[in-house]
Design a protein that fits this description.
The chain is mainly alpha-helical. It has three domains: 67 residues, Up-down Bundle (Methane Monooxygenase Hydroxylase, Chain G, domain 1); 102 residues, Methane Monooxygenase Hydroxylase, Chain G, domain 1, CATH 1.20.58; 29 residues. It is 52% helix and 7% strand. It has nine helices and three strands, in the order H-E-E-H-E-H-H-H-H-H-H-H. The protein has a three-stranded antiparallel beta sheet with strand order 2-1-3. Helix 5 runs antiparallel to helix 6, helix 6 runs parallel beside helix 7 and helix 7 packs antiparallel against helix 8. The longest helix has 25 residues. The chain is elongated. The N terminus and C terminus are likely disordered.
């Protein structure tokens, strides 16, 4: 069973447009006439069977529609099992922005375009998130003087910003003129509200990416 949940998207969303501009390698599994111009390195009229070409995802998506798509996806390295092993070992050291600046959105579109690869892609999305979530949140809230890592993809960057905003708001509140007695209901409510605010954005976004088991984990943090 694929650990995958469809992310809502819109053609008019800038992030979706940018994500589908990323290029993928595909293998032609039957002759495609009059589309040789899609090969930037050749001067051909047709795309022959067995030919490998790199296309923007939105073009590959259009060509792959129908019951017998003429293209087979060559899975990008960032979604392969080897990448998951790296994530398990040292997720915070991976430059996800360099590998794919819109990694999560790109992966969701990719899985929707090529259902045969959905299981592996969705598994990679889940393992990547689980491997990096704690590190991103810890970096966001431990010290506001620490700059945002440049290795985050677009969605992780938004998540970091939300965590940092919540942290700054909490710091301002805790340094206010009032006193806070540890263990009091006021203290407990404050902490609950802080973490509720802190995780609100990530919880809402996660439901578009990962399965209900991971969501259940987050809601019990």
């Amino acid at each position: 069973m694929a650990y995958f949940l469809r992310m809502e998207s819109s053609y008019l969303e800038l992030v979706d447009i940018l994500a589908t501009e990323e290029k993928v390698k595909v293998k032609v599994n039957k002759d495609i006439r009059k589309l040789g111009y899609l090969d930037p390195n050749g001067n051909r009229e047709n795309l022959p069977k067995g030919f490998v070409v790199e296309l923007p995802l939105w073009i590959a998506r259009e060509l792959s529609s129908g019951t017998q798509p003429p293209l087979n996806l060559i899975l990008p390295p960032v979604f392969k099992s080897g990448h998951q092993q790296v994530m398990s070992a040292c997720a915070e050291l991976v430059n996800l922005h360099k590998a794919s600046p819109y990694y999560y959105q790109f992966g969701v579109h990719l899985a929707n375009c090529f259902p045969s690869q959905r299981t592996e892609i969705s598994s990679s999305l889940k393992s990547t998130f689980l491997g990096r979530f704690s590190w991103i949140m810890n970096t966001a809230v431990n010290d506001s003087r620490v700059d945002k890592p440049r290795t985050l993809d677009a969605w992780e960057s938004e998540m970091f910003d939300e965590g940092r905003k919540s942290y700054v708001r909490f710091q301002k509140w805790s340094q206010g003129p009032h006193t806070l007695r540890f263990g009091s209901n006021t203290c407990i409510n404050c902490i609950e509200n802080f973490y509720g605010d802190f995780l609100k954005y990530s919880k809402q976004s996660l439901k578009h990416i990962i399965n209900k088991n991971v969501k259940k984990f987050l809601y019990t943090v």
